[in-house]
Amino acid sequence: MSVVPADALPGGVLAAEEQAAPAAAELGPRARLWPSLAAVYRAQLSRARVARIPLLFVATFQSVGIMILMRGVVDGGEEAQAVVAGSAVLVVAFVALNLLAQYFGQLRGSGGLDHYATLPVPPAAVVLGAAGAYASFTVPGTVVTAVFGCVLFGLPLTHLWVLIAVIPLAGAALAGLGAALGLLAPRPELATLLGQLGMSAALLLGVLPADRMPEAVRFARDLLPSTYGVEAFARTFGERVDWALVLADLAVCGAVGVVSLAVATWAYRRAAVR
């Protein structure tokens, strides 16, 4: 068998071999945040619609039951305003905090994060999409609870439109907290426990009137993200609404939401690479 040097081959043969060799595939452009966020949001919304709607009825029934119980000890005034506002935001806490913590805890425990890690979407899109989908389920229950509470305690329905701002801002703050708890918990059972404790804190610190709480409990109440949504909503029931304070509470609630969602995004990156 003879060996022919490469430089002895005709130029056409070398050119044909070079053309036959497959070229290296170029990577596609990186997925943008907003289209990825919309895709994850739609996927989560369709996936969770059947499973979460019955739980939304449970959250609404729970808040309505609490208001009926409190009606026996609260006649009206600022205490009634706190009960109605806290019960309405409690629906958001039940879904956005409690259920989202359970979801991400189960996702991490079952290895479901590996699926999201292979998708060409930014980590923030996964967290924000799931948080937005879960928070969207709270809208009907929150509105029903607020209307029922106003009728039960004789409060005005004039400024219920402020829920348009309260629901997404409080939902973002609580959903970010719930996602962070679920992603940082080492076991799904612990994520469920932390979600339940967070919802219990929203119940005890958000529904009960702040004037009847000890000073230490009031300090803990100020640390709860949903408190500022409750305060903003409760202020709108007065005869003369101080809109500057309402906007200040909403601004704080929005700032806490940005921080909590950023922490949840960091927790997602941390859990996805393990």
Description:
The protein is an all-alpha fold and 274 residues long. It has helices spanning 11-20, 33-70, 77-109, 113-118, 123-136, 138-153, 163-184, 188-207, 215-223, 227-235, 243-272.
Reconstruct the topology from this structure.
Blueprint lengths: L10 H10 L12 H38 L6 H33 L3 H6 L4 H14 L1 H16 L9 H22 L3 H20 L7 H9 L3 H9 L7 H30 L2
Helix pairs in contact: 2-3, 2-5, 2-6, 3-5, 3-6, 3-7, 3-8, 3-10, 5-7, 5-11, 7-8, 7-10, 7-11, 10-11
List keywords for this structure.
single chain; 274 residues; mainly alpha; 11 helices
Mean residue pLDDT: 83
Beta-strand residue percentage: under 5%
| Regions with little confidence, pLDDT below 50 for 5+ residues | 13-18
How many distinct helices?
11
> What's the gyration radius in Å?
26 Å
What is the share of helical residues? Answer: over 70%
Outline the biggest β-sheet: none
Q: Compute the number of strand runs.
A: 0
Q: Tell me the distance between the termini.
A: 55 Å
| H and E string | HHHHHHHHHHH
Shape designation: elongated
From the helix content, strand content and strand pairing, which structural class follows? mainly alpha
Care to give the gist of this entry?
This protein is mainly α. It contains 11 helices and no strands.
